Amino acid sequence: MLREKVIQMLKDRGVELKEIAEIVYKLQSPFNPDLTMEECLESVERVMDKREVHHTVMTGIALDMAAENNALPEPLLTIIKNDEPLYGVDESLAVAIASIYGTIGFTSFGYLDKNKIGVMARLDDKNNGQVHCFLDDIIAGIASAASARLAHSRGNDIL
């Protein structure tokens, strides 16, 4: 199944769903003191059920791997390897994931894109020989969508 393939691709790049759930917890726990890691992981898993997420993750990882293997033309190769700040295509792909559960995902995505917490900080390290131009933003997109999903489910309790 495609979902399992994508989760394995994330694992192969050093990312576990639990690490994404930890980011979700950091985003949502200030607003929900009763939130559990299990709820956060469940929300990440629901995001990972979406086909558009599968496609985005596969595309981003493939581009990162192609850059690692010098399999992209210049100047694109250098732009992706250096994760040039004005490139923006990596964020554009990830924002598509972040918006799955509404516009609240944009706010969280912007915060994560600037602050690179949890596994994102490790992926943003350019000294380990791997390219994660797309993957760190994709993780931010998944975490933002999962966080938005939780916010919407909790928001219904208020009404």
TrEMBL record:
Gene3D superfamilies: PgpA-like (1.10.3760.10). GO terms for biological process: lipid metabolic process. GO terms for molecular function: phosphatidylglycerophosphatase activity. Residues 25-151 form the YutG/PgpA domain. It holds the Pfam family PgpA. This is Phosphatidylglycerophosphatase. It comes from Anoxybacter fermentans.
